[in-house]
Amino acid sequence: MKLVVAAVGQRMPGWIEAGWSQYASRFPPHLRLELVEVSPAGRSGAGRESAVEGQRLLARAPGRAWRVGLNGSRQGWSTEYLAERLAEWQIGGDPVWLFIGGADGLAPEVLATCRERWSLGPAVFPHMLVRVLVAEQLYRASTILSGHPYHRA
What we know:
This protein has five helices and five strands, in the order βαβαβαβαβα. The protein is an alpha/beta fold. It has one domain (2-146): Alpha/beta knot (3-Layer(aba) Sandwich). Strands 2-1-4-3-5 form a five-stranded parallel β-sheet. β1 (2-8), α1 and β2 form a beta-alpha-beta unit. The longest helix is centred in the last third of the chain and has 20 residues, at 127-146. It is globular, with a radius of gyration of 15 Å.
């Protein structure tokens, strides 16, 4: 099964790339984690940056994908709940695309195409850091399903 994190932003700082690579490399062969980056919209002052970024994200995603929007406006998912969702996604067989917006958040047009919305909780995180947090949580969820001792809660 393929998990794709589609995120706004390119040329991330080295520590973000290192964090992403660390977790992405830990996934088993049957559960691949990939990153798709789209360029952020320029700051026009017109307030349409997230819409432009949303169009770029949607243009990259296949129609058949199970879509999940990262959205901070809802109660967060526990890691155990994410593991349940991951198990269901694997049964479904479709690629899962998780969308992360840019500095202004995820465009409503993208959220409208998503079957689920995942929040990391009420705290606000830099959008570039969210990709690392998502990778770690997906890895942690996969270890719960496989019985690996990484998750000790």
